[in-house]
Write a structure and sequence with these properties.
- By secondary structure, the chain is mainly α.
- Helices cover about 65% and strands about 0% of the residues.
- The chain has 4 helices and no strands.
- Helix 1 crosses helix 4, helix 2 crosses helix 3 and helix 2 runs antiparallel to helix 4.
- It is globular, with a radius of gyration of 13 Å.
Length: about 80
């Protein structure tokens, strides 16, 4: 396993141990970067109109379309480090 993959997995664990819950915008960014890093471009149908949380997550992930998985992983790791510092 590469160093980037290991750091990405560790950051995913570290985010659950944050002392304070990040604001909603930061949570969406974390979600989108994680999904882009783990799965690549957004897949599946957009959630229904009344699924506000699902729609927000889908749209946040969709904004990263075209970002490489490695770049998303690096951004995710950097954001988690910033939050844990």
């Amino acid at each position: 396993m590469s160093d980037l993959n290991q750091a990405f997995e560790q950051a995913a664990k570290d985010v659950h141990a944050l002392a304070e819950r990040p604001d909603n915008d930061t949570l969406l960014k974390l979600y989108a970067l994680y999904k882009q890093g783990a799965e690549g471009d957004v897949k599946g149908d957009k959630p229904g109109f009344f699924d506000f949380v699902g729609t927000a997550k889908y749209e946040a992930w969709g904004k990263l379309k075209g970002t490489s998985q490695d770049a998303a992983r690096q951004q995710y790791i950097a954001l988690v480090k910033k939050l844990t510092a």
